[in-house]
Write a structure and sequence with these properties.
The structure holds two protein chains of two kinds. Chain A is built from nine helices and twelve strands. By secondary structure, chain A is α+β, with helices and mostly antiparallel strands. The chains are: A alpha+beta, B alpha/beta.
């Protein structure tokens, strides 16, 4: 479980708040119950002591204590009602003492006697005894045979026991309840976040090459729905703007082509008639610039077509190793001419899915780049290799390398590592940009590492072609049969 | 031989027309699709050069009409769109050949002539210029009777240059003929091969045959054999 996920954090908060609420309610309940039971008990003790007072007040003078005791037993029934009753006649003569209560909640003998002076008015107070705390009512009454002290009490133990049982019940239920609530909450939040999850999955598929996909709109009528529709509006605007910029690039490079044809054609015709001489020299200069411009325009067109997703049209399984080896043979003389050694390692066939013409362009541009920036005596290496779940194409050189500041920009359009570097070879700064565009159209990752003075290494990682994997699976299945 | 150019860019049309007239073709120009249609209805042309992006009646539409009425008229399409898909569509619509802008005029001439069969596809087995001899059958090259060893690419470049003695071949034409478009950006790949070729067939001998036409390309000819189409 992800500890930072919204669902997890919400559930934890939910559980904490719920536990606190539950504890608060439980405490209040237990306190209220205790107060209620005590008040009840106090009331009952008062009423009983009034009954006893009446018996004592109505008893004629000289009546036997036994008769009084019988009257109390009959009317109050202290043992049956779990009450403590003790009557003392002044001065400290025991007149009646009730026996042990039916529930054994206290020991009558353990209740200490009230010493003189007796309280003038009736009072109820809590008293600690050897058999636990008791609530005692003390009152005096003047009978015919003298002044009586009536001690009437009840053990507080049963109330405490009741309170304990309530609290332990609550304590037992709390974790269960909180766990249920938190678990339920987690599931609910996850369910509530499912539309967001779906939106995220769709959003991940959207790239500059494919801006057509739209997020599923969660019909919740709330913030979530607004979020998905406004994100979709944003995608529309984004697509329009990307489309417009691609369109501009395509139109601009198109519009340049006709004037270029005329300039080039006119100059070439002039040149064939008048080669040599000062004028011919000038025309030659201009024609060389025209060739550069032409190269630039065709590079821009290639990029604009890649932007438009054109590379996906003619896909097939391509043996990258063979393609690489063949391409190197075409380039070998160029490398020889520069005094650069070409080393190829393309041992086993490695298959990628793509447009062979474009993939070749990747190899040509990377090799050309490597040869260009490697001094005579250097080595340019090309490797193709099967990886786990992919195919690697690597071009390394022992050239001048790229500075760390320039490294992140080498794939940018029109980027030149420095002004002097590619001025004289007519490079427009589009070669590596084209390489990156082709790679991303093929779902391949390209990365470069370089140490100035030691050399650079370009690594292209192509995804495993699904068809190739499938074919391999069926052929191995056939082999097992 | 009468040609019709349907092209809305007047300068391009004029330039192509001028070049083709110098090659001794009769050339008419139409500025848009409808004018092109009228011309086609009035005259018998031997070849149509058609730009696809035209105002009024589009080039593709005109091409369909031409194919319906004159199925044998050769049509060369000029286009600024060179995506493979576009090319396939042009061929399906009935174009016999296409040329992508910006094109080399020399290539236009080669293709026009091929389409009109004025220069039948010559498969002479042995090509000769001065004392240089190239045998397509045995893939052997001799100069002054001396056998010269060439690599496959060098042979292909030489064969292409010798296929039309005196004609200037642009780097792009050589590149597309001997390699393919992928190598377009490669630093002077054509120049490197031509230099190696020269070392073998020119340097050991007193007379140079391969000539550089700066900014244009290369041609193979004997010393003063400049081929000027205007004076032919």
């Amino acid at each position: 479980m992800n500890h930072r996920s919204l669902a997890f954090r919400l559930s934890v908060w939910y559980a904490l708040v719920l536990s606190a609420t539950f504890a608060l309610v439980g405490g209040a309940m237990s306190y209220g119950l205790e107060q209620y039971l005590r008040a009840n008990l106090r009331d009952s003790l008062r009423r009983r002591s009034i009954q006893v007072q009446q018996i004592l007040a109505q008893a004629p003078a000289g009546v036997a204590d036994a008769a009084v005791a019988e009257a109390i037993e009959t009317r109050v029934a202290p043992e049956f009602n779990n009450r403590f009753v003790r009557v003392t006649r002044a001065p400290q003569i025991p007149a009646y003492s009730a026996g042990a209560p039916a529930d054994q909640s206290f020991d009558p003998a353990a209740v200490p006697r009230q010493t003189e002076p007796w309280p003038a008015t009736a009072l109820v107070r809590q008293m600690a005894t050897a058999s636990g705390p008791m609530l005692m009512s003390l009152s005096t009454v003047d009978g015919a045979s003298g002044k009586y002290l009536i001690e009437l009490g009840s053990a507080l133990g049963p109330i405490e026991a009741l309170q304990h049982r309530l609290l332990s019940l609550l304590a037992l239920m709390l974790p269960v309840l909180v766990a249920c609530a938190a678990g339920g909450g987690y599931l609910l939040v996850q369910r509530a976040l499912q539309p967001v999850e779906r939106m995220a999955r769709t959003a991940e598929r959207i790239s500059v090459q494919d801006l057509e996909a739209r997020l599923p709109v969660a019909a919740t009528g709330d913030a979530l729905q607004r979020l998905s529709t406004s994100l979709n509006h944003m995608l529309n605007r984004l697509r329009d703007s990307v489309f417009n910029s691609h369109r501009f690039l395509a139109d601009a490079s198109h519009e340049l082509r006709t004037p270029l044809t005329i300039i080039k054609g006119e100059l070439q015709q002039l040149m064939t008639r008048q080669s040599g001489g000062a004028v011919g020299e000038r025309i030659g200069d201009v024609l060389e610039e025209v060739a550069r411009l032409e190269h630039l325009v065709s590079g821009l067109l290639v990029l604009s077509r890649l932007d438009a997703g054109d590379a996906r049209r003619e896909w097939a399984d391509v043996d990258l190793g063979r393609l690489a080896a063949g391409t190197v043979e075409h380039m070998r003389l160029v490398a020889d001419d520069r005094g650069v050694r070409l080393q190829v390692s393309a041992p086993a066939p490695v298959t990628v899915c793509g447009d062979a013409r474009r993939l070749k362009q990747v190899i040509v541009n990377l090799l050309d780049n490597a040869i260009k920036f490697t001094p005579p005596g250097g080595v340019v290496g090309l490797t193709t290799r099967q990886l786990d779940g992919g195919v690697l194409l690597e071009v390394s050189d022992s050239g001048i390398g790229i500075s760390p500041e320039s490294l992140p920009h080498v794939f940018d359009r029109f980027y030149r590592v420095d002004g002097t570097r590619s001025r004289d070879d007519g490079g427009a700064g589009l070669g590596l940009a084209i390489v990156r565009s082709i790679c991303s159209a093929h779902g391949a990752e390209i990365e470069v590492e370089s140490t100035p003075g030691t050399g650079s290494r370009f690594r292209v990682k192509f995804p495993q072609p699904a068809q190739a994997a499938l074919a391999a699976e069926t052929s191995s299945a056939a082999a097992r049969l | 031989m009468r040609l019709l150019i349907v092209e809305d860019d007047p300068k391009l049309a004029d330039f192509v027309a001028r070049g083709l007239r110098a090659e001794r073709f009769a050339v008419d120009i139409a500025r848009d699709g409808l004018e092109g249609q009228r011309h086609l209805d009035s005259y018998q042309y031997d070849l149509l050069i058609l730009d696809l992006m035209l105002p009024g009646l589009s080039g593709s539409e005109l091409l369909r009409q031409v194919r319906a009425t004159r199925p044998t008229l050769p049509v060369l399409v000029l286009t600024a769109r060179d995506a493979t898909q576009d090319k396939v569509e042009h061929f399906e619509a009935g174009a016999d050949d296409y040329l992508t802008k910006p094109f080399d005029f020399a290539e236009l001439v080669v293709r026009v002539k091929a389409l009109m069969r004025r220069t039948p596809v010559e498969r002479t087995d042995v090509l000769r210029i001065a004392d240089l001899e190239l045998s397509r059958l045995t893939q052997q090259v001799r100069r002054a009777g001396q056998r010269i060893e060439l690599t496959a690419k060098e042979f292909a470049v030489l064969e292409y240059l010798m296929s039309s003695v005196g004609r200037v071949f642009s780097r792009t034409m050589i590149l597309e003929h001997v390699w393919d478009q992928s190598f377009e950006g490669v630093t002077n790949i054509v120049d490197v091969y031509v230099r190696y070729l020269r070392r073998k067939i020119d340097e050991p001998f007193p007379v140079q045959l391969i000539h550089t036409v700066r900014g244009v390309g290369y041609c193979i000819r004997e010393a003063d054999q400049v081929r000027d189409p205007g004076q032919e």
